[in-house]
Amino acid sequence: MVPARTQDCDALVVGGGVFGARLALDLARRGQSVVLLEREEKLLQRASCNNQARIHNGYHYPRSILTGLRSRVGSARFREEFADCVDASFTMLYAVAKRMSNVTPSQFKSFCQRIGAPLAPARPELERLFDTDLIAQVWEAEEWAFDAVRLGERLTQALEAQKVDVRTACEALRVERTTDGSARILVEARSRPDGEPMTFGATQVFNCTYAGLNGLLRRSGLPRIPLKLEMAELTLVEVPPQLRDVGVTVMCGPFFSFMPFPSLGLHTFSHVRYTPHRAWQDGTSDTDAETLFATAPRRSHFPFMQMDSRRYMPSIAEFVQRGSLWELKALLPQSEADDSRPILFKRDAGIPGLTCVLGGKIDNVYDMERELDLLLAEPSPRT
Hints:
Layout: E1 6-14, H1 18-29, E2 34-38, E3 54-55, H2 65-81, E4 86-87, E5 91-97, H3 105-115, E6 119-121, H4 124-127, E7 135-141, E8 144-146, H5 148-161, E9 165-168, E10 170-177, E11 185-191, E12 197-207, H6 213-219, E13 227-238, E14 246-251, E15 256-261, E16 266-271, E17 276-282, H7 289-295, H8 302-309, E18 320-331, H9 335-338, E19 344-346, E20 354-358, H10 368-377
Parallel strand pairs: 1-2, 1-12, 2-9, 5-14, 12-20
Antiparallel strand pairs: 3-8, 4-8, 5-7, 6-7, 10-11, 11-12, 13-16, 13-17, 13-18, 14-15, 15-16, 19-20
Helix pairs in contact: 1-5
């Protein structure tokens, strides 16, 4: 890499999703000069937008007490910090199936009590939405959705206020350590779509590209991180009147979930069996994950989702599909065993000063703070 003109900063963040944007804010608030690179035209345009928009409050993780507890803490902080981006106007229902569930009603209730997640028997008119031959019990829970468009606007404003240099439509191509003894990292980038080259120099570089983590590492000739990637489809549906102010998750196995999607005024509809279209182990192939994602066929699984789910809730037969959200989903291998969602904060990822960050859900953003404090408390990166 031969830099023509290099812009220097204390920290450079690659990836303008929720994690990258929030990390850039945290760095700036600690007195760092920060550059944020995002290859899309705006922030929060990929995985931070193309998801169920659920603010997890712990219910989803009966196999991981720690994840449930952390979700409870993180969701409360998120609701306080981004109150104007949160939709709390609907009723969230959790149900346990009589067959094929990995949790019984008593186990689920006990888990919620242990993590302090509010749970109350569903009102009769809501319980009647389900087929009681297939569903053992239904509860009303406290869980919410976020508006990704509004959240992107809020984070953009906050970054501007903190004087973070945000470069959208700018793709990071590779990173390398300088050889001049300055203990800095050079980041080669280009603007999109004209391809104008840019070079940045930073003491710390944070790779927050989610499913693109290994893409930047591979292009830089650095060791990659074992990840499972899924090509996932969330269908966008218009629901019948009786479900417009309702979200539902059936626990815990090959079942379905739907809930409001505030930014579009529709509901997302997913199914454990049919939402993933393909999956592969990333980090072992030279084929870029984005290339696989871009070239993969997109034939909706909505008919299969609807056919299976309406057995449990007959009114799902009235769902009308209005589109689909397609995205790459990244999982750490240990999450496969217990459904946990730990944050990855991998320091010195191939070269000193390069940190890879991966979170599995939006409230994980607060798990970065302690790691960042420890990192910035150290002397300059090791050579």
